[in-house]
Amino acid sequence: MRTLCILATLAALTLTRPTLAQDALLSDQQARELAETLEHADTLIVSRGEGRPRLYTLAPLAGYSTSYRATQYLSVTRLFDGVPMAGSELPTHTALVTSTVRKVMDDRSFVADSVFTELGVAENTDATDAANQGMRALIAPLEGMSSVRTLSERGLPIPHDDVRTKPAADKDLAKRIAQIALLPMYILPDEPVAPGAVWHARRDFNEDNIQQTLILSYTLTDANDDTISLSVNGRYLLEEQTLPPSPQMPEMVTTITDGTGSILGELTIDRRSGAPTHGFVRTDATVNVTAKSPETSRSTIEQRLFSEITISRPEGEDEAASTHPPRPSVPDLDRVIAGMPDSGSLLLSSGVGDKSELRYTPSLDAARTISVTTKFELLDYEGGVGTMEQAAIPDFEQTIALATQAAPGNGTFSVFTRVTDAGIVEDPAFDARLLQTFDVGIKRLVGQQYNYTLTTRGEVLERIGQEANASRIRPTPTADIEFAGTSCVLPEAPLGIGARWRTLEKLSHLTGMTTHVLRDFELVAITDDTFTVKIKHSKIARLDDEKNLTSPLRSLLAVCEGELTYDRALGRPVEGSMVTASWLTLQMVTLGKAQMLQQAGATTVTIELAQ
After folding, report:
1. CA distance between the termini of the chain
2. With CB atoms 3.0 to 4.6 Å apart as the test, which of 229, 264, 320, 353 could cross-link to 221 if both were Cys?
3. Are the C-beta atoms of 93 and 121 separated by less than 8 Å?
4. What would the pLDDT profile of 505-546 be if each residue is shown by its tens digit?
5. Short-list 507, 530, 519, CA closest to 560
6. What angle do CA 315, 320, 325 make, to 5 degrees?
7. Is 384:542 a contact under the CB 8 Å cutoff?
8. Which residues lie across from 21 on neighbouring strands?
């Protein structure tokens, strides 16, 4: 039974889909030659593909979840001293797996929690009715089980696997089914590649005290910002080894003489969760074992396993079924920051068509009233006291008056902003008393105002705020129209439609926090009175000294994307929307004990001219 468990684990760990020609399979000899060439978890690039190479990694998003349907067919044949034993056509079982990213570490490795629901036995299988009934009885206690795993940004499993079940559950079966969550056992190369790229990888691991090796050949068939598609073929290798004694039969000496298996297929992986979305898994393996004790002669056991796993979207769910905030591109952002001065701007493209030097053109009689709607969604919350439900905030609206306060002078001008009205948007999903409590708090924002001094390029030189009757509700973008990263600094160059530019600010705080704010702009439209830009703002804040306890904020990542139209006379946005996804880590110290809190949230801000 020990080797049966080994093979079942192998079936769940390997990922494949049979679309490549059979002669493309790696042979045992090729696999052994590659094993001598490759180090553990190393990659050897054979071809970089066609087109512009790019470094493809996972881009985990804290709080992001995706679901897939997994169906597994498993057949095991055993020969005992050359005599066939009873067939083991096991019932085909299915599961709905929901994988959620719980935590993202600084090195971009992440922890994902996969929950198994809708567990069942497929109809019309080759197994007997008794076997079907037996499997249903075993699977029933596993409903709601979860498997916690850790992956690197290259898709490499980091030793950490915790299967959680009810006490009465069959632990071996739970472990085998939970291995489906580990299907993305791929290793992405650490160098840029393009579709069509081919590389080899070696993966060594120990399962049930058995040392095992996988030699895999990958082909990158497709990749984009959301998914990666791979074709895979390879070999599973077992060298001769003696297993530790079994507690039930301590005098029995069990030796694996050899083992090999073929792997072939394709898989599509969601980059934000590291979970598969589509795929087909096929494994064909054989393991030879000898067993000997003082009382028995030497016996030989040959076990052959065939496994097929199908991965698909849940019925009725399409690619866009789950909506989530923008995915942060932290590795790219870090590289850009490293290549730019601490503060500055960079013109990436001047655009096409007629080009002119774009500036704000303020006037004393400029005045507008805008309506601002804010929606906050808490995606994940770990640590501390409270729940996601307790942290929910209803949508709310504000009316903000904008006006210029001083005539242009020396290339600068002043803008005044003031909240004239605010209130909660009615939502039947919230308790009426909760809505009223928030409504009272939001209404206290009325009267809040700010004065800005700006250059005609949009640089903010000074900001003076007055938080009259300020609300304690947070986050609340108010009359301070710097919310959601809406500031736009124009480059000193003639621009046309499609022009792209980038700015970077580095801010150091007395608390020991260093903040980088990277802003990317693309000019979409321009008139005498307005201009419209697509925006992506990325903010990274890190505590320089991790031992500093004066600031509870340990780290912050925020990615803000949208499209805004700016009034050239006011220097402020008057139409458009922005979505900000943020991930923050706090350290709270209570009675001398430090406690880490993680929160992932999304804020959607919509701005329109008031009627």
Report:
1. 74
2. 229
3. yes
4. 887 766 667 788 888 899 999 999 999 999 988 888 776 665
5. 519
6. 135
7. no
8. none
Q: How far is CA 471 from CA 207, 210, 387, 463, 474, in A?
A: 56, 61, 22, 20, 8
- The closest of 279, 260, 216, 265 to 6, measured between CA atoms, is 260
Does residue 224 have a pLDDT over 50?
A: yes
As given in the structure block, the two tokens for residue 566 are 């700016």
Asked whether 404 and 362 are in contact (CB, 8 A), the reply is: yes
Global confidence as pTM = 0.53
What's the CA angle centered on 93, arms 67 and 160, to 5 degrees? 55
Average pLDDT over residues 468-473: 54
pLDDT above 90 (res 308) = no
Q: How many Cα atoms are found within 13 Å in the side-chain-facing hemisphere of 270?
A: 27
Question: Is residue 475 reached through a cis peptide bond, with omega within 30 degrees of 0 on the bond before it?
Answer: yes
pLDDT digits (tens, 9 = 90+) for 105-162: 878 888 888 888 888 887 666 677 777 787 888 888 888 888 888 888 888 888 766 7
SS3 for 52-115 is: CCECCCCCCCCCCEEEEEEEEEEEEEEEECCEECCCEEEEEEEEEEEEEEEEECCCCCEEEEEE
| pLDDT tens-place string over residues 67-104 | 888 888 888 888 888 887 765 667 788 888 888 887 88
Tell me what the mean pLDDT of segment 289-314 comes to. Answer: 85
On whether the CB atoms of residues 549 and 578 are closer than 8 A, the answer is no
Q: Are 348 and 340 in contact (CB under 8 A)?
A: no
Could you please report the per-residue DSSP string of 122-183? -SS-SS-HHHHHHHHHHHGGGTT-EEEEEE-TTSPEEEEEEEE--TTS-HHHHHHHHGGGG-
Which residues contact residue 410 at a Cβ distance below 8 angstroms, ignoring those fewer than 6 apart? none
